[in-house]
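Sample intake sheet
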Amino acid sequence: MKILAIGDPHGKLPRGLNGIIKREKIDVIVCVGDIPLTPKNPSEEKSWVGFRRKADKSYGDVVKKLCSFGLPVLILRGNMYLHDTGDRLTKRIFKRYKNLHHKRTGRFSLDGMDFVFLDMIWEKSTTRLGGRKMKKSRQITAESRKRRLNEILKNNKDAIIISHSPPFGVLDKITSGEHVGSEILLKAIEKHDPRLVLCGHIHEAKGEKKVGKTQIINLGCSGSYKILEV
């Protein structure tokens, strides 16, 4: 199976995507989240409303392009457009395509290969709280998704995890030097030894490392991609 794994698009897909799909005989497309356009410098935007319209359009355009090849598209939302109008827009866009598959925490099986979704999960390690407590609702959600992730991996030892956030301490260092990855993901990797983790979110930490037997790939952003054969 050949996988085209795409980093956080932020409105931009790999250059020459049509040729990549055809030349490499791709079987499945994976996108690790944060699909809409984001401003390079918000202060330079003359109209935030106008920019939001461009971002909304880019969201729809990117998803439409990814789904246009008729291949299974396994996609995460990331940490953008999670609330209110953005949430409703996401649901409308995703519902249009039968070959698009998304779960916050869940499993998708394709030709005997198990893919495990872990979309953005808010936990203490992934937020910069500055000594403040995390909301109780987020704590409850994180614990629930932690249990679900471990239940899935327990019965899918050779799985490929698609996560928005990297594991804590691995390809997750921001420019300040702080680690902001997922402790829940790290502990699950250490416990279950999945085959591979594809992630993004921390763009400056793009690269590859191993945790035990598990290969971790932070795919970067804005057109960055990797072709994998599994």
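Comment: The domain at 2-229 is CATH 3.60.21.10 (Purple Acid Phosphatase; chain A, domain 2). The chain has a mean pLDDT of 94.
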